[in-house]
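Researcher: Re-running this chain for the archive, since the previous output was lost when a drive failed. Same request as before.
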Amino acid sequence: MISSGKKGSLILSSFFFSVGWFSVAFSMPLLGVRYGFSSTQIGALGFLMAFPFILFSYLMRNSRSDKFLKILRYVPLVITACSLVFIISSPVLYVIGVAIADLMQGLYWIVIEIYLGFVDIKKGAEKYSFSWGVPNFAIPLIMGFVIMDFGFRALFIISAISCIVAFVTTPTVHFPRVQVENRKLQFMQIIPVMFVGVSAGFLYYVVIPYLKVSGLAYNYIGILASIPALVMATGFLFLITMKEVGIRKVAMISSILLSFPLLFVVFHSALDIAIISVVTGIGSSIAFSKILSYITGSSSPSYGVFYFESLFGAGFIVGSLIGGFLFGVFGFYACALLFVLPIMYSIRVYVTGYFRRESSSFPP
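Model: Regenerated structure tokens:
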């Protein structure tokens, strides 16, 4: 069992961990530019961040071992150590630190998400979403000004302090002994989660470095980087009040909105990027909230995390690694190759849905 005090401490620790981690995450592509990395190399950093989500969600899909929960206490210390290492201006140490930090943060999120799916915490998912959602949009905004005024060193010190607080406040918890019901879901209906990952990976590991290379100041980059997360968090609140919509409509609408980065081919000024980011943020909020709800209702918690995080991670890798390579070769024309996929998918969903409505042998 987990006491009410431990419930609150778990959410509080995830908040401070989020502050520390998102500070480091915001710095990664920007430091890649500072060290002279190519767009492909910076995109590879996105692969390092996303792959642990696929790896650990797969490894833990049938496991609820308390050994994994114990790791929650020590991951913040690892991120603290990496933050302090980043202070040393060394490309080699930077890459090593990124690899270690990315691996551990992936494990942290997967473990805590599976755990929250099995325990009885009143509005636990909502509280957890708030604990990481607020830092997700606030930290890039704040850290852009911190870097501008005080440099990267101040960012890493703030990250280290936040992670130490996360370590202190993380409680010792245990998985409950519950029976897991394995249910089935329609895989084609949850693919838009991958498109969320593609847009996020491309924005943070391709567009953000592009803005820095173009000479945009760190504070403005922080503002632009915070827009999708702010819109997404606002969308979460708005969608709570909306009536339920069929999963096919959700899949189609979110995919259309997530295809808007296709406009980067023609429009890629800072203002254009801000506007397109607003639209993709809306698409991300719809896909995240409604499809996650569908996954939760159609699979066990551990398998639900596996489906959700592996799709998002795979999309993030496509957007960052493949997107970075294509951007280096074709520039913004690469968007035509990446973001036409959501359009093709939405057309398929529409056509399939139409014929299914015409036939009584298919569910609506």
